Amino acid sequence: MFHDRAEYSKFFETITKTSGLSANEVVVLLKEYQIDISAKTLYGYESGLSMLNADVFVALCRIYKCDNPMEIFGVPSITPSEMKHIEKYRSLDIHGKDMVDTVLDKEYTRSVSSESSNV
Q: How far apart are CA 54 and CA 76, in angstroms?
């Protein structure tokens, strides 16, 4: 989540500038999502003077083409390769998941301990 209004405002300032869309254009596009706000309200969101709800946030992310809005909250994006691993893991039975968890835990522990010894 945004830690403060300045961070929130900075995010919207950045995506607004990179989009090339005017506030009036964004207001028109928001109507396609059944969101009817004024350009003044949009400026309030972008300046951090007012907070928007989840519906407006999602619509703005779509309009501004945010590839992974979760990154905004500090959640890293998932690569296609990682997504394939997740899909494979989800298809495993309980024994297969237990095996993967065991190997992953052991490898993670080994990797972290070797990194700390190299520091």
A: 20
One-letter amino acid at 42 equals L
CB 19 within 8 A of CB 63: yes
Those residues with Cβ within 8 angstroms of residue 92's Cβ, 6 or more apart along the chain or in another chain: 100
Query: pLDDT digit string (tens) for 6-46?
Result: 776 777 777 788 888 999 999 999 999 999 999 999 988 88
* Contact assessment for residue 1 and residue 73, using Cβ atoms and an 8 Å cutoff: yes
CA distances from 59 to 11, 29, 40, 50 (A): 15, 9, 17, 17
Taking the C-alpha atoms of residue 32 and residue 63, their distance in angstroms, rounded to an integer, is 10
